[in-house]
Amino acid sequence: MFSRKITPDIEIRLSLPKYADEIFAVTDANREFLRQWLPWLDGTTSADDTREFIREQLQRFARGEAIHVTIFSGESVAGVAGFNQIDAVNGIGYIGYWLAEEYNGRGIMTRVVSDLISIARDELGLQKVDIRCATENHRSRAIPERLGFTREGTLQRAEKVYDRWLDHEVYALLLDTSPEK
User: In which domain, by residue range, is 79 found?
Assistant: First the structure.
């Protein structure tokens, strides 16, 4: 099984169906908090929905199209992250993430995304990592800004989240994939 220890208390593990009940419980408990940025919550009404999503992500992982990981703080699920899309032809990985409200502000996601960047460079041989965040989601935007990404621009009305349109800030990090390093 794919897992990586980020700190003594933070670990990422490939998302597996056995985590579906806990991921759903965290999603459900944080529904209002997450709803301001994530459009899929109304379609996730049971652990079976989460389990099916994880199965789809495992199929995409097997094809080299995505990597979905569960973030653990101690033995508790704190959130999820990963490469929502891997464009192997162009060498670009698109990172997405969310954390339960109680885990925000602890540097967890910054550490997780930093590790995903290492995976992109060292394991996947990608040349670029892309993160897109809602313009108003300052906590989410702080992560690529903290990690040295370049803000490439704003996509207007990039995503409809329930009754409103959100603009997205596009961040990119070019990776040095030369073998000398």
Answer: 3-132
